[in-house]
Design a protein that fits this description.
By secondary structure, this protein is mostly helical. It is built from 13 helices and no strands.
Length: 274
């Protein structure tokens, strides 16, 4: 019976892994096929070629689009972590009237769907002169990633022992020194988790990137992929689209693998209290 249960467990795990990885596998295989054999059913490409990857960069400024996504996502992570860390310290360690209501209001901001605030955000960005500008995308994304960042870091900070802060105060440390020299080294798992989630969210965001950018030079990779066209208006270069999808997916997989241990620690922090 134990053998049957174990076999059933691993069979279920294998099915879930295959279901999750098949789209990526299909994209990789399709990106290596020539256009004439793109729709043939093959588990492995019979004649692998890199022409789709070459065409992605030669037919549009895809390298610039990748750089735009890196700049925007990196800026969002930096601003969200710095602002979220300081806000989380105040909400978790400083007692003041209305603290619980303020934290609930911060969380409520993230409950609004993007389309509900799209028109207002468009008018705001245009009034600030940031339309078709990467700074406008960064400002927009921060408004959506910051509430989640503040909530996660606040929860994590509340679980750290109060004695650490008291010892730092006795040694003459101020609030900023306590945060940066005592708490920050202990918060690396939570920082890695929230930073990676913010990066993935900014990297994959499509609606605001489509609305707030106009030229190919300012677009991020999701919009650039969605707007790829072929020789005619109704013809889509599926090989190029698959190659571009693989290019923009691999960095995210690499980041998850590199920070895997810290991500797991950050997600499970506070689940068990000793």
């Amino acid at each position: 019976m134990t053998f049957i249960k174990r076999a059933a467990f691993w069979l279920l795990v294998s099915a879930i892994v295959a279901y999750a990885l098949f789209p990526l596998y299909y994209a990789i295989v399709s990106s290596l096929r020539p256009p004439s054999r793109l729709f043939e059913i093959q588990w492995l490409p019979s004649a692998a070629t890199l022409m789709n990857y070459t065409a992605v960069f030669s037919e549009q400024p895809f390298g610039r689009n990748i750089l735009n996504s890196i700049v925007v996502a990196g800026s969002v992570v930096g601003v969200s972590l710095i602002a979220g860390l300081t806000a989380a310290y105040a909400l978790a360690r400083i007692r003041f009237r209305g603290r619980a209501s303020l934290l609930a209001a911060i969380l409520a901001v993230s409950m609004f769907p993007q389309v509900a605030v799209l028109s207002g955000m468009f008018e705001l960005i245009r009034a600030l002169g940031l339309y078709n500008n990467l700074a406008g995308l960064t400002l927009t994304y921060v408004l959506f990633t910051l509430p989640f960042t503040v909530w996660i870091l606040t929860t994590y900070l509340r679980e750290l022992p109060q004695e650490l802060e008291e010892s730092a105060l006795i040694d003459g440390a101020n609030a900023w020194q306590t945060l940066t020299r005592v708490f920050l080294p202990l918060m690396r798992p939570a920082m890695a988790t929230t930073g990676l989630i913010a990066f993935i969210g900014a990297w994959n965001e499509f609606l605001f990137a489509l609305t707030l950018t106009l030229t190919n030079e300012q677009r991020t990779v999701p919009v650039a992929i969605a707007l790829m066209t072929g020789a005619s208006q109704h013809e889509l270069p599926w090989g190029n689209i698959m190659a571009a999808s693989v290019i923009v997916t691999l960095p995210l997989i690499a980041l998850v693998l590199v920070y895997q241990k810290r991500i797991v620690s950050g997600l499970t922090a506070g689940a068990v209290k000793g």
